Amino acid sequence: MNYQEIIDKHQHFFNTHATKEIPFRIKELKRLKNILKKNETLLYDAIYKDFKKSEFETYITELSIIYHEIDLALVKVSKWAKKKKASTGLANLPGKSYILPEPYGTVLVIGAWNYPYQLSLCPAIAAIAAGCTVVLKPSEVPSRTSAVMAELINKNFDPHFFKVVEGGVKETTELLDIKFDKIFFTGSVPVGKIVYQAAAKHLTPVTLELGGKSPAIITKDVNIDMTAKRLVWAKFLNAGQTCIAPDYVLVESSIKDKMLSSIKEHIEKSEYHVDNDNYTQIINEKNFDRLRNMINTDKVYVGGKVNKEERVIPPTVMKDVEFSDDVMQDEIFGPILPILTFDTVEEAIDKVKQLSKPLSCYVFTKSKPTRKKILNEISFGGGAINDAMMHFTEQTLPFGGVGNSGIGNYHGKYGFETFSHYKSILQKPFWIEPNFKYPPYSTRKLNFLKRFIGL
Ligand code: NAD
C-alpha cells in the first residue's frame, strides 16, 4: 500500500474544509455509532476469538466507553468548536481578543492491543469531533479485532477522511516516516520513544498514552473488605491486561495479613475462570511466557498455577515482595498482584518515587492528611481515592500520563482539545490608533506607558 498517497489524499480532503463544518462532524460521528451498533455481533465475535473475552466485559470496557464518547461529542461539539472570547488589555483597546479552535489536520492514531476497540476508536472520535481526518493503525496483536475495524470503517467511510491501515512494526514505521499534523499513540514506553523521535523529524505534535507501574497504597484505617473487593475487580479485569490496573499494592504492615485474606476471599467469590466466561485469556504466548517468568512460586499466596495450552494465568497474589524482585522490575500487565508493605506514609511515598512517574495511583485511606500528603508529593497521571480504575470512566476528567507514563491527555472535551490548535486573534478597528508606541520616543511617552498601559 502506498501510504504517502493515502496521506496526500487526506491532506487534499482536509484542504476542502469539509471537516470544518460542524454538521459534517456530527454526521460522521453518527455514522460511526450506527455502524458499531449494527455490527455489535461481529465486534463481540472478533474479541472473543482474540481474547475469549465475554460480551459483558466487552460492553463495559469497550463499546459503552466508545458510545459515551460519541454521545458526548454529538451534544457538545458545537460548543467546543466555538470561538472563545478573551479579555483585551488597555494597550489594544478598542480591540477585541478571541481564540479560535482549529483542527490540526491529518491525524495518525496508533492503537494498543489490550482494549483494541476503545483505544483505537476513542482517539479517532475526538479527532473527528475536532475536525481532523484520521488514519487509524490498530494493534496487529489481536488480529481479528484489527480486521473487523478495518472492514467496517473502510467499507463505510470516505477513505480520504477516515481510513484504517492494518499492520505491525513495518507498516507503523513506514507510516511514521510520513508527515502528519498530529500523532496520537497508545502503547509501551519504548515504542512511545520511537514514535516521539519519528514525529520530531517533522515537528509533529504528539500525544503519548504510555504505561508504567501504578501503585495502590493502603493505610491501616481502611474498610478492608471494600478495599479488597474494588482492588480485585480492578486488577483482574481483562486478566490484568490494563494500563491503569493496580500494578502492585503497598499496604501498611499492621493490616497486611487481614488484607491478604480479604483479597483471597474476593478472588474466590469473583469466580474468575475462563470456562465460565468471567475471565480473559493472556493475549499471546510471548506475554504468557513473560508473565510466567515473573511468578516466584516461593512467594505465591493465591493462584500461580498456569495453563499454557489455554493461555490462562489465574489471579495470582504474591506476598512478602521486595522492590528488588523480578516482578517489580517492569510493568506487569497481567494477573499478578505483588503485595509489599510499609510502616510510615513517608516510606510508602519514597518507595513509589523510586520508580518512574506512574500512569495511575490509587490511595485507600480514611485520613485526609495522608490523602493530601500523597496527592501533593507523588506525581502521576490520574487516579482514585478509595477506588481503582473507575476514574477512567469519568468523561469530565482528562486521561493521560506524566513523565514516563505519557504526554498529553484525552476523553470528552480534553480529546477535542488534543486534536485542536487554539489560534489566538486580536482584532482591531481602523478608526483610532494612539501614537504612544511610535517614534519619536520621549520620556513623557515612556512615563505614560509605564503608568497607564502596563507595557
Ligand atoms: P506496543 O508499544 O508494543 O504497541 C503499540 C502500537 O505500536 C501497536 O500498534 C504496534 O503495532 C506499534 N508498534 C510496536 N512496536 C513498534 C515499533 N518498533 N515501531 C513502530 N510501531 C510499533 O504496546 P502494546 O503491547 O500494544 O500495549 C502495551 C503497553 O501499552 C503497556 O505498556 C500499557 O501500559 C500501554 N498502554 C497504555 C494505555 C494508556 O492509555 N496510557 C492504554 C493501553 C496500553
What is the compact description of this entry?
The protein is an alpha/beta fold and 455 residues long.
Characterize the structure shown.
Helix 5 crosses helix 14. The chain is globular. The protein is an alpha/beta fold. Helix content is 42%, strand content 16%. It is built from 15 helices and 16 strands. It has a 7-stranded mixed sheet. It has a 6-stranded mixed sheet with strand order 5-4-3-6-7-15, with helices on both faces. The structure holds nicotinamide-adenine-dinucleotide.
**Largest β sheet strand count, sense and barrel closure:** 7 strands, mixed
Count of discrete alpha- or pi-helical segments spanning 4 or more residues: 15
C-alpha Rg, in Å?
Answer: 25 Å
How many strand units?
A: 16
What fraction of the residues are assigned to beta strands by DSSP? 15-25%
Averaged pLDDT, please? 96
| Low-pLDDT ranges | none
Shape, per Cα inertia axes: globular
Work out the helicity level: 40-55%
Bound molecules: nicotinamide-adenine-dinucleotide
- Main sheet: strand order: 10-11-12-9-8-13-14
N-to-C span: 56 Å
Structural class: alpha/beta
Secondary structure elements and their pairing?
Elements: H1 3-15, H2 22-38, H3 40-51, H4 55-81, E1 84-86, E2 96-103, E3 106-110, H5 116-130, E4 133-137, H6 143-156, E5 162-164, H7 169-177, E6 182-186, H8 189-201, E7 206-209, E8 215-218, H9 224-236, E9 248-252, H10 256-270, H11 285-292, E10 300-302, E11 316-318, E12 336-342, H12 345-353, E13 360-364, H13 368-377, E14 382-385, E15 406-407, H14 412-418, E16 420-427, H15 443-453
Parallel strand pairs: 3-4, 3-6, 4-5, 6-7, 8-9, 8-13, 9-12, 11-12, 13-14
Antiparallel strand pairs: 1-2, 2-16, 7-15, 10-11
The structure holds nicotinamide-adenine-dinucleotide (NAD).
